[in-house]
Amino acid sequence: MNTKTNDKFNAKTHMNDGVCTVFLSGELDLSVAPDFRLVMEPLVGNSEIDLIVNMKEMTYIDSTGIGILLSILKARHGMQARFAVEEVPPQIQKLFDMTGIAKFFQT
User: Fold this and answer.
1) Superfamily for 3-104?
2) Are 41 and 49 in contact (CB under 8 A)?
3) I need a surface site. Which of 13, 35, 43, 71 has the fewest CB within 10 A?
4) How far apart are CA 85 and CA 75, in angstroms?
5) In the chain, where are the structural domains located?
6) pLDDT tens string for the chain (107 positions)?
């Protein structure tokens, strides 16, 4: 399990049977975007795994965080590799619905 933590953001990875789940907690915004990218970069390019982001413990996401998720989606789609977002909190799901991106994140 790989972990990246700062005062307001935490990302932990867990690998099981070809599925890598990244558990996020806290706030994903411009100030922590580099930390999130560091965790995700080596995973995104690995087409042999299914990549899932679990947002259960997320409290906030801004346009930078959404942009990173969309970049990951685009990269994974280009490799024909699975990417999903799961357990999205209601306040973040509402944002995904309002922006029209919810339909792109398969669960």
Assistant:
1) STAS domain (3.30.750.24)
2) no
3) 71
4) 15
5) 3-104
6) 566 667 799 999 999 999 999 999 999 999 999 999 999 999 999 999 999 999 999 999 999 999 999 999 999 999 999 999 999 999 999 999 999 999 888 65
The conformational region for residue 22 under phi > 0 = left, psi -120 to 50 = alpha, else beta, is beta
Q: Going edge to edge, which strands form the sheet with 83-86?
A: 3-5, 9-16, 19-28, 50-61, 83-86
Q: What is the 3-state secondary structure (H, E, C) of 73-101?
A: HHHHHHCCCCEEEECCCHHHHHHHHHHCC
Calpha distance 23→44 (Å, rounded): 15
Rounded to two decimals, the pTM is 0.91
Encoding tokens for residue 58? 């997320």
